[in-house]
């Protein structure tokens, strides 16, 4: 069953808790979404609150994917540039698919839905995102039409002695 994507869903306690659970499960499965396993929902909650505040202020928009049972199964957050010379592209953050749904094409579906949503944002011509090196994410994003446009070697310290590249990817919207 495909996921059902919604842009700018109403932020209810169920949605908030669903995103928090998703973020925790993705992080603890080794996902590159700002945390290193093991992590608890209480450790992630402040970062989620920052995202929700940015949404309330109109600086961020949420794309959420629900599975057939209605559970939060995927997310991506759009962040808008405030600099007048960079308003023609958006950032995509916290791109996640629940581990139990991985390998089913939902990541591709999420990125396609994000591109479709971004095409509807006035004046948006591209999406940028960053990913952590060492996990093949740049290959996955590349297979979805993104191209690598920058790399900072060793910019992400996952653990002492385990530094990863910070890779910037770009999708030009047609």
Give the end-to-end Cα distance, rounded to a whole number of Å.
28 Å
By DSSP (H or I, 4+ residues per run), the number of helices equals 4
Instruction: Give the class from helix and strand content and strand pairing.
Output: alpha+beta
As a whole number of angstroms, the C-alpha radius of gyration is 16 Å
Instruction: Please report the total strand number as a whole number.
Output: 7
- Secondary-structure element series: EHHEEEHEHEE
Estimate what percentage of residues fall within beta strands. Answer: 25-35%
Coarse morphology: globular
Largest sheet: 7 strands, mixed
Q: Which consecutive residue ranges, at least 5 long each, have pLDDT under 50?
A: none
The helix content, as a percent range, equals: 25-40%
- Average pLDDT level: 97
Q: Order of strands in the sheet with the most strands?
A: 1-2-3-4-5-7-6
Please give a handful of descriptors for the protein shown.
alpha+beta, seven-stranded mixed beta sheet, 174 residues, globular
Report on this model:
The chain is α+β, with helices and mostly antiparallel strands and 174 residues long. Helices cover 30% and strands 34% of the residues. The protein contains four helices and seven strands; from the N terminus they run E-H-H-E-E-E-H-E-H-E-E. The chain has helices at residues 13-28, 41-56, 106-119, 137-143; strands spanning 4-7, 60-66, 72-80, 89-97, 126-132, 147-159, 162-172. It has a seven-stranded mixed β-sheet with strand order 1-2-3-4-5-7-6, sandwiched between helices. Helix 1 (13-28) packs across helix 2. It is globular.
């Amino acid at each position: 069953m495909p996921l059902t994507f919604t842009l700018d869903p109403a932020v209810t306690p169920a949605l908030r808790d669903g995103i928090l659970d998703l973020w925790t499960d993705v992080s603890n499965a080794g996902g590159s979404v700002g945390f290193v396993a093991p992590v608890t929902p209480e450790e992630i909650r402040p970062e989620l609150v920052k995202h929700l505040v940015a949404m309330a202020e109109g600086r961020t928009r949420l794309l959420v994917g629900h599975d057939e049972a209605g559970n939060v199964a995927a997310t991506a957050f759009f962040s808008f540039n405030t600099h007048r010379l960079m308003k023609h592209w958006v950032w995509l953050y916290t791109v996640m698919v629940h581990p139990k749904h991985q390998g089913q094409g939902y990541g591709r579906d999420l990125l396609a839905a994000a591109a479709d949503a971004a095409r509807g944002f006035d004046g948006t011509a591209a999406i940028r995102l960053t990913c952590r090196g060492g996990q093949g994410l740049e290959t996955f994003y590349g297979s979805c039409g993104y191209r690598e446009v920058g790399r900072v070697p060793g910019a992400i310290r996952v653990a002492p002695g385990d530094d990863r590249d910070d890779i910037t990817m770009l999708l030009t919207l047609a």
